[in-house]
Amino acid sequence: xxxxxxxxxxxxxxxxxxxxxxxxxxxxxxxxxxxxxxxxxxxxxxxxxxxxxxxxxxxxxxxxxxxxxxxxxxxxxxxxxxxxxxxxxxxxxxxxxxxxxxxxxxxxxxxxxxxxxxxxxx
Length: 122
Hints:
By secondary structure, this protein is mainly α. It has two domains: 2-70, no CATH class; 73-116, no CATH class. It is 71% helix and 0% strand. The N and C termini lie far apart (50 Å). The model has no long low-confidence stretch (mean pLDDT 78).
């Protein structure tokens, strides 16, 4: 029980530091807690959650939901389209193809695309 209390106190202190670094934003305590928890888990060899880290997944889900609700999605989409249409587009497509080529077929969507486009390597 004492170890858990010490661990929660470390998280609380780090979350407070993160909150101060971010300019003390209102209603962001959960974000800072998750970031602190993830940082401490990554720093502590005994705290490694391994593949499928619940802490990291929660933090990612929360940040993506917040971005979808509050972020400027249209502006970001335009910037992404501009990047794909611009000089870095070829490099981005090449990187995407390389990533897909290394896939072991875990993504069922890739298999569907391969069946629709038989000449392409998945």
